[in-house]
Design a protein that fits this description.
Elements (H helix, E strand, L loop, with lengths): L1 H5 L2 E4 L4 H13 L2 E6 L14 E4 L12 H10 L4 E3 L9 H9 L3 E2 L4 H7 L2 H8 L8 E4 L2 H11 L3 E5 L9 E3 L2 H19 L4 E5 L5 E9 L4 E13 L2 E7 L6 H17 L5 E9 L2 E8 L6 H8 L3 H9 L16 E8 L11 E2 L2 E3 L6 E5 L6 E2 L6 E9 L2 H14 L1 E3 L5 H8 L2 H5 L15 H24 L4 H6 L4 E3 L3 E3 L8
Parallel strand pairs: 1-2, 1-4, 2-3, 4-5
Antiparallel strand pairs: 6-9, 7-8, 7-9, 10-11, 10-13, 11-12, 12-15, 13-14, 15-20, 16-19, 17-21, 18-20, 22-23
Helix pairs in contact: 4-5, 7-8, 12-13
Length: 502
């Protein structure tokens, strides 16, 4: 009882929507959420969801959200007992977990010993090899060593940061000259992003599916909350996720989830995390462990009814894992679309002033966001601005609800990836569930030609209406083709139900 009373102030060492999401669960459970913010985030919405918040200065993440000592200092100033790292930034850095413990703070995440294993892709693959196939490859320290290995396992290969994550620093290599050109650049990027220049090479599986398993553990017990399909990506970063995966049979699903749980039991995993796999030709290949809460965790919560942040708090405060595997029942289907402030065609980030932000209002739609009308998106951080989560009794119902939600979403002032998501959800490969990580390479934006024709029609339609008014005649073309858009009651006017994103 003393432990529960003492551990009641949580510093959420992050920014944006994940702070709001964690803060809501903290409040429900009686914990007091506290926050931090940078100079660039001084008008951020997540500040208002925290009981207290402290400005830790700077603009770029290296000056604030990646500064361990500033965060520890902020926790002490606000008298916090726990630190939740969210995702990204310091969430998988074992040095930060160690520092928290050294300073008498509870880190809401895996122990440093677990993070040492899971955060090192080479070590994690060695552990996983006892339970699942892994793509052939190993760590390399020189260009000559890299070329020798690539020639042995055959091109294409993929070059990765050993301590990387989030799709950063990945490079697909097709030729020896590509490898020679990319090797030094990759090591420098790895140092900048992850504080280590270690890289490794493995055989690149072309056009696999990316499927991950959600895990909860408290060292003694490990359970899974099912899988998530994460194959729709750009630059190795996820854009759309769904659960359950349309690629799996119940038998395959059972094998996959048991394998993931076995890997995590082996390392005595002790919080929330995921085991990531590539799936091709009926075979699974272990890829990596993500030792944190995932951006896409809401779809698992939607189908299981489990609050993953609540379970993280239970495990971290010593209550342990209070769920049993046979009590976990999934229901329905959920999809998440990550909405980014990016050009929907090139995916180039687009910071700037948000003139209007009106998310859909539907009981079957969950919106996780920290955006609001009048907010200026900073160029210093990730371009994610909202997550739209749909739930339905079936996959078809979930897709239709997501389409309707995206069509009613209003964001102006900056471009967003909503047009991309609408296109993806109307693609026959997505509708049939037969897609892989190459999906975006062959995407035809939904009704490109039709939209151009419609745009031209609606540009000229007012002139046409004005002409007809002057002539005093009804136009049979208007009556037949666009009766749903235009009607007359002595006056011509347009009821345009199409929405154009600016």
């Amino acid at each position: 009882m003393f432990l529960i009373l003492r551990l009641q102030k949580v510093l959420i060492a992050n920014r944006g929507e994940i702070v709001i999401r964690i803060a809501n669960t903290c409040k429900r459970l009686g914990f007091l959420p506290c926050g931090i913010y940078s100079n660039a985030d001084k008008n951020a919405l997540h500040i208002k969801y925290c009981k207290e918040a402290l400005n830790i200065g700077g603009n770029s993440s290296i000056e604030n959200y990646l500064d361990m000592y500033k965060i520890i200092d902020a926790a002490k100033k606000m008298d916090c007992n726990l630190i939740h790292p969210g995702y990204g930034f310091l969430s998988e850095k074992y040095e930060f977990a160690e520092l928290c413990i050294k300073e008498g703070l509870v880190f809401i995440g895996p122990s440093p010993d677990v993070l040492r294993i899971s955060g090192d892709k080479v070590v994690a693959k060695e552990v996983a090899l006892a339970f699942a196939p892994v793509a052939e490859g190993k760590e390399v320290s020189s260009v000559d060593e890299a070329l020798k290995l690539a020639n042995k396992i055959g091109y294409p290969v993929i070059l990765k940061a050993t301590k990387g994550g989030g799709g950063k620093g990945l490079r697909v290599i097709n030729t020896p000259s590509d490898l020679m050109e990319s090797f030094i650049i990759s090591k420098k990027e790895s140092t900048t992003s992850f504080g280590s220049d270690r890289v490794y090479i493995e055989k690149y599986l072309q056009k696999p599916r990316h499927i991950e398993v959600q895990i909860l553990g408290d060292k003694l017990h490990v359970i899974h909350l099912g899988e998530r399909e994460c194959s729709i990506q750009r630059r190795h970063q996820k854009l759309i996720e769904e659960t359950p995966s349309p690629a799996l049979t119940e038998e395959t699903r059972g094998v996959l989830t048991k394998t993931a749980a076995a890997i995590m039991k082996q390392i005595q995993y002790d919080n929330a995390g995921t085991v990531e796999f590539l799936f091709k030709d009926g075979e699974f290949y272990f890829m990596e462990i993500n030792s944190r809460i995932q951006v896409e965790h809401p779809i698992t919560e939607a189908v299981t009814g489990v609050d993953i942040v609540e379970q993280q708090l239970n495990i971290a405060t010593g209550r342990g894992l209070l769920l049993e595997q046979d009590k976990i029942k999934t229901k329905g289907h959920a999809i998440e679309c990550r909405i980014n402030a990016e050009n929907p065609f090139t995916f180039a980030p687009y910071p700037g002033l948000v003139k209007q932000f009106l998310p859909p209002n539907d009981n079957n739609i969950r919106i996780d966001s920290s955006l609001y009308s009048g907010y200026t998106i900073s160029p210093f951080y990730d371009s994610l601005i909202a997550k739209v989560i749909s739930f339905g009794e079936s996959r078809k119902e979930s897709i239709e609800r997501m389409k309707n939600a995206l069509l009613s979403f209003r964001i102006s002032g900056i471009p967003s990836t909503i047009p991309f998501h609408i296109s993806a959800l109307n693609d026959n490969r997505f509708l049939s569930g037969s897609y892989d990580t190459s999906f975006i390479n062959n995407l035809r934006y939904y009704s490109d030609k039709d939209c151009e024709i419609a745009a031209a029609i609606f540009v000229h339609l007012p002139k046409r209406i004005h002409y007809l008014q002057k002539k005093g005649k009804n136009d049979p073309w208007l009556e037949s083709k666009y009766r749903s858009y235009c009607k007359t009651d002595g006056m011509f006017y347009c009821n345009n139900t199409m929405r154009w994103l600016k």
